[in-house]
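Ligand: magnesium ion. Inputs:
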Amino acid sequence: MLKRMVLVRMESNLMVLAPPVGRDRIISDFPKWYTPEACLQLKDHFHRQVRAACQEQRTGTVGLKVSKVVVLGDLYVGKTSLINRFCKDVFDRDYKATIGVDFEIERFQIAGVPYSLQIWDTAGQEKFKCIASAYYRGAQVIITAFDLADIQTLGHTRQWLADAQRENESGSSFVFLVGTKKDLLSGPACERTEMDAVHLANEMQAEYWSVSAKTGENVKAFFTRVAALAFEQSVLQELEKGSCHAQIRAGASISIRREESSVASQEGASGSSPGCC
Amino acid sequence: MEKKPSPGKEEGEGGEEEEEEEEESGPEGALGKSPFQLTAEDVYDISYVVGRDLMAITGDSRDVATRVTQLQFKIVRILEMLEALVNDCNVTVEELRMERDSLRKEVEGLRSEGQPPNTEEVNPGTNKIVVDLTDPNRPRFTMQELRDVLHERNKLKSQLLVAQEELQCYKSGLIPLNNSQLARRDPQALVTSPSSSKGGKQEKTIIRKLFSFRSGKRT
Ligand SMILES: Nc1nc2c(ncn2[C@@H]2O[C@H](COP(=O)(O)OP(=O)(O)O)[C@@H](O)[C@H]2O)c(=O)[nH]1
Ligand SMILES: [Mg+2]
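Predicted complex:
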């Protein structure tokens, strides 16, 4: 995905304009994993460099950036409900199939820096795959969802992940495996499914979460975790390209730079991103 | 693109009785009606009543007369709008009614025959489907059309979100109203057409947009 950003120099600093975010979208401490047995990072604090950069407002374009999250999984597992619970704090018992793709934007303030996620919801129906798959490209986060009460859907997440990864540079996206409808089961049945899921998550190099859109359990914690990991990665990528920004600051009053979003850092900071250095 | 058959509207045997609701209370009666039952005829009745009352006010005074005339233009405009709305609404209701009738017929046909008509006569061969042109729910759009519509919708949704955010900035006093030199998120950074777009040409557009938006000068 080609992201375009418009930067206008004001006085000496880049100003990012965003209205204040709700209190529950402010993240100051690094959010914790769901289970240490399947998590992407064990540490419970921001990367030192990232923390420093945020304090000194050296995060460059991160505040202007919208990171892409795609949510995949079988029809009816609860993808739309999960997103709606988080973004609108609603739950609808009735089912309405998602047509093709849809998205929501969620704004955060992480370590004092504004940050946005664009969360793409997909249909999960075979007949829409050819449309939805075009939207997988450039995903910084891939979320594969399954229904905790329907074990078949767990197995299918492997295929969904493969579909999403085909559209992205290998290793460039964070992967999450999410079991939905946690309210529907409890006790040993839940534990057994979770164990299977944790096992699969490790195979997929994914972080595992159990959530319920109906009760709201873990939904906010989950997306907060997603946002923090994506944010930290974005800042680190930005820091790698630090020299470019020095130029932007010093020189032009208006600069436009483009970048192959998350792919850029994989290719190294030295000038592979067009229009930059 | 493909030629689309016109919607299968039945002719002749549409034998539904129209519910005629004549209110016999003279032109004033229209004002007492539920807005959802209003017909264009009622709008004309309202128009007559209002016009008559205006004439009555006018009397002899010149000053009042001019003001009433001005008011009259506005009322006429409002009535025209109402007329358009009512007509449009009635057309929609009529269309829905026809759809419903043809659906009913379809269901009856399926019930009595146990299978859809036509299938025995036509053998389309493998990888083809038979489309019943009278079925209002038949497939009508191509994948490409759906793709375009979705793309368009996503674009509009992102523009809406950006505009809402912008509005919030103004509301919270974050942007002084006369300031035109601030960074903002570009709406096109949000929605990404699935196909990767070419850079060069669009860069200019974004700048132009940025500044035209801020300074209120549309180019
Ligand atoms: N009990 C329960 N039902 C859920 C939950 N999440 C979704 N559902 C229901 O599952 C059905 C499918 O949900 P939806 O979000 O549309 O699935 P999608 O096709 O993956 O987008 C709907 O009827 C929802 O009400 C949940 O957390 N608990
Ligand atoms: Mg859905």
